[in-house]
């Protein structure tokens, strides 16, 4: 059996605000329109890929967070459309950027580890909004990065600051 399989999802078309309230921004949606059809294709293809995967570890990567305590918060569209597919197919990690911080969230409602590694810029904003402290395993508002080690028996994640100092570690 395979050790790990990674699935990359184009999360931007899921976010309603980019379509309904673009705040003067112009987005070129060639290849995405009609949106509903595009999203359904993404979800169907992802679900099929996850279902057919024989990998010990399933990891999904997207730009936007499903769950986040930082400035953008949870992405409601991903919570309602993407998360049920990830949970039904035993995804282990959902990794994203978008929010400029490092964080690990794990809830009692989901076995998925939600990992944000977006600490590349605009850090130190001082924004933190999370209502269930027991779910927040780690939050760092500064710049940094993560490393992921995967073996047949475990996944390990280390969170680093820009100097390479380990700030937080987690493993299965």
Automatic annotation (TrEMBL):
Protein name: Purple acid phosphatase 4
GO MF term (any one): hydrolase activity
One Pfam family here: Metallophos
Record-linked InterPro entries: Calcineurin-like_PHP, Metallo-depent_PP-like, Metallophosphoesterase_PAP
Keywords, ordered alphabetically: Hydrolase, Signal
Domain of life: Eukaryota
Record domain Calcineurin-like phosphoesterase: where: 15-101
Coiled-coil positions: none
Database matches in Gene3D superfamilies: 3.60.21.10
UniProt KW Transcription regulation keyword: no
Lineage: Eukaryota, Viridiplantae, Streptophyta, Embryophyta, Tracheophyta
